[in-house]
Amino acid sequence: MKRKLFAISFALMTLSSPLSMFALGTAADTATIDTSVSAAPTPVAEEVVEEVATPIPDEGAHAIIKNKFIEGGVLWMTPVLLCLILGLAVAIERIISLFMASGNTNKFKDSIEAHLKNKDVEAAKAEARNTPGPIASIFYQGLDRHKEGLGVVEGSVASYGSVQVSKLESGLVWLGLFIALAPMLGFLGTVIGMIQAFDDIQAEGDISPTVVAGGIKVALLTTVAGLIVAIILQVFYNFITSKIDSMVGDMESSSIDLVDMMLKNEIVK
Q1: Which of 175, 154, 160, 159 is nearest to 97 (CA)?
Q2: Domain-wise residue ranges, the chain
């Protein structure tokens, strides 16, 4: 009986050993899997860095002109700039003066004729004296000599008309000077710049495209500036001369009308 119990106990111990070993192995594998899973790095979302392109500031017209002025050389660009400033000052002054001098000619002549019809020469003279402009000045000179005869009136009107024309054209000589002087100064700066470019080539001892192109570019900038100034001033000059020609035509026509009005109303004989 004891031998049977001992055999059964030994058999149970023999069976339980593999089961325990299998359980320990399974637990170890589970722990290993858990450790590997926990040790696996969590994927981190990559930060997307957008490169913001730095905008290149657009150079305005003022900045471009300033840079070209400096590149052309302050010594040679400054006289050209002075020609532009002084020329524009003369042109603007002439334009303002001409527009102030050109009034309502027809209304003025109608008023003078109304006074002459009433034989009121003094009122006509006062009207001409108080009215600005070359035509009113010519009328005043003619009316002021109505007692001296037709020949004297015509002579005074013609002579004073020439004086008024010279007043209208005052300042145009200076404007023409600046128109001619600006490109000449530009050409002078170009010649000096070319000489300096050749001096640089001689100093380098070799004809380098960089030296040649840079020197010629700087030299030509003065010519470009001078031509631009001359073109701008020439436009103003032509406008002013056309306005003066129109006013001179009105003055000649009005002088004839004055003589006709004086003869028609028997103011002069």
Answers
A1: 175
A2: 74-264
